[in-house]
Amino acid sequence: MAAVIIDGKAVSESIREKLKVRVSALGEKGIVPCLAVILVGDDPASLSYVTAKERALSLAGMESRDYRLPKDTTEAALLSLIDELNNHERVHGILVQLPLPKHIDQQKIICAVVPTKDVDGFHPVSVGSMVLGRSGFLPCTPMGVITLLREYRIAVSGSHTVIVGRSNIVGKPLANLLIRQDANATVTICHTSTKDLSHHTLEADILIAAAGKPSLIRPEMVKEGAAVIDVGVNRVGDPSAKNGYRLCGDVDPAVSQKAGYITPVPGGVGPMTIAMLLQNVVEAAENRYNG
Known about the structure:
The chain is of the alpha/beta class. The protein is 38% helix and 16% strand.
């Protein structure tokens, strides 16, 4: 029996509709939630992500301020721009698209954004607040995953959840969110160097793939009826495709014949990441004027 497809696009659209109500309430006070988006260089994937985020902001009635900088922009110039935006009254959130060119210290840039405008949830203060269960912005992709699990009423409490991937953006924060008392999962973190990966994945009630390796998770690695969340977005060559490539996840499509639930790529976690970003921007605007 084929798995239930977890429709991230539909869930994200529902969230966006609810956000419009909050944006409208802010508008009545003369406030337009605003996100400053900084893109350094011309990486095609980054440009695509930024464009999608900006389009989503516009559709939700929010403002986007775009800063497209050449790839040879100095670290000092980027820090100066961030400082300016940190102090800009009408900018509520700041997003610096990653990765950055190699000559720029990524961690230094992440730390330069003030936590009150850190809508990506990457600043050490935001990370610390997440780990301690304090209020603060949560990273968008992990929160998107948590929201999908809740929307589809997949039993997280008491589950054995296995995460394949240990990045600071997805794997580590997702593990922290899942072991909170409001989630109550037992979490195992694996990665591409884990010995006998199948031994762990076959034990998973919920299996989350976020390693960035195409088709890493195959049917024989998945427990019958498990919920499988595919965070991976990989470009693989495909001569038949218009652009010469196609997008695929970290999970082999054949897993859908064994899993109980599965997210598609695209259309699964991706739309949720953007929805959570919009939610953080609205929250940032509300915090500024209601706090």
